[in-house]
């Protein structure tokens, strides 16, 4: 099995379950821009418009995870783990009313992992396959 580019902690998965019960299918986007810096943002699936400037990295707990292409250039050699912490972020992400916010923990891939990476799709490729 290819090395996944993005993972989620059990705490993040529990929060995703709460949000999915309330909002239905979800998606994540990591922009690296404004609105709480580079925190991953959770949206109702389809609420955030994906395009050619986005990259699909895989799924976490049944949710598609995207990142801006420019951010991916910096993080392509790291495995991202989505976690959750107490506190209120300054974004439009769905978890904010719960008094928590998603965050990213990262580590460099090992040389062995780098040889067997999960494929990524640009936003347009993803939309063609979805």
Key terms for this structure?
alpha/beta; 8 strands; DUF779 domain-containing protein; DUF779; Hypothetical Protein Aq_1857, Chain: A; 35% strand; three-stranded mixed sheet; 130 residues; five-stranded mixed sheet; single chain; globular; 25% helix
Write the layout of secondary structure elements.
Layout: E1 6-8, H1 10-23, E2 26-30, E3 41-44, E4 54-60, E5 63-68, H2 69-75, E6 78-86, E7 100-108, H3 111-114, E8 121-122, H4 123-129
Parallel strand pairs: 1-6, 2-5
Antiparallel strand pairs: 2-3, 4-5, 4-8, 6-7
Number of extended strands: 8
Order of helix and strand elements from N to C terminus: EHEEEEHEEHEH
As a percent range, the share of strand residues is: 25-35%
Question: How would you sum up the global shape?
Answer: globular
What CATH first level would be assigned?
A: Mainly Beta
Regions with pLDDT < 50 over 5+ consecutive residues?
A: none
Radius of gyration: 14 Å
CATH architecture designation:
Sandwich
Report mean pLDDT, rounded to a whole number. Answer: 91
CATH topology: Hypothetical Protein Aq_1857, Chain: A
Protein name: DUF779 domain-containing protein
Description:
The strands form 2 sheets. The protein has a 5-stranded mixed beta sheet. The protein has helices at 10-23, 69-75, 111-114, 123-129, and strands at 6-8, 26-30, 41-44, 54-60, 63-68, 78-86, 100-108, 121-122. It is globular, with a radius of gyration of 14 Å. It is of the alpha/beta class and 130 residues long. It has one domain: Sandwich (Hypothetical Protein Aq_1857, Chain: A). This is DUF779 domain-containing protein. Pfam families: DUF779. InterPro entries: DUF779.
